[in-house]
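Slide 14.
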Amino acid sequence: MRGAGVRDARPASRNVLRLLREPRWLRGLALAVLVALVCCALGRWQWHRREERLAANAPLVQNYDAAPVPVDSVLGDGQVLAPGDVWTPVRLTGTYDTDATVLVRNRPRDERFGYEVLVPLVQDDGTALLVDRGWLPAGDDSTERPDAVPAPPAGRVTVVARLRQWEDDKRGRVPAGQVTSIAGDSVTAAVEGALDDPPRLLGGYALLASEAPASGTSPAAVPAPAPAERPAVDEGPHLAYTVQWFGFALTALVVWVVAGRRELQARAEEDQTPQDPTPGTTPGTAQDRAPRGAGTTSAAPPAPRRRRRREGVDEAAEDAELDARVEHR
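Slide 15: predicted structure.
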């Protein structure tokens, strides 16, 4: 029994080697490997995209709910806000310079276009932090500015705000006192154009979280701008795409393996099927194929066929018909 198992395994191994040597199957394997490599590359790309998204969300997760710190401990005069310090809450005291109010155009919110209101908060050392005080809808009768821009609190104000980096600059023709993005150069130019002695802006801006005293305490006052909303922390679909691409890579290889196994199984079944008889011969029974003299009885020769007589005609009539033909000649 053991020897039979070894003999059965050897033909199977030879079949596998023969299948791998066939050009058609080698081309199929090469194609499957190529597809798997491409899918793996795309999977790694999606994984790196996810890592980039997580890195971008890390400051928001770590800093957004932290306790406020003095602004000069994070962003000093002449410094640029570091990426790891984005969303850090800072506390500072100063005076709003309303003459240098800047409006940021084309800011959609809740399917409406509007403006964000930027006002420099000037500190005692002459530096100023540009504070984004919130969002206002566009005016009903004009698209040049909001219907009304509420004034910030007068006098000294203590502000808690979350730091943000400058946005990319967007060029465009806008009215005086307005910008298309919160970019350092554009905002600095707008502030300097509104004041004779402008303050030195710090290297970033901040989203207002709270201020004391608060504005808009009078019932007749213009409603304050809508505060900035907390951003959603979203990783995106990159992790799901990563799993899908690596799954496609594995599927490409599995498809080739399954197809090869089926091919080998089909060939094995063909080898086990009895061979068909030689073309042009009629398959007979086992007794017909047995050799003569092997205990079988030969068949009797067929009896000679008797000539069929014409039905309804006797012998005398046939003789008379023959005699008449001879006399006629």
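Speaker note: The first strand starts at residue 69 and ends at 70.
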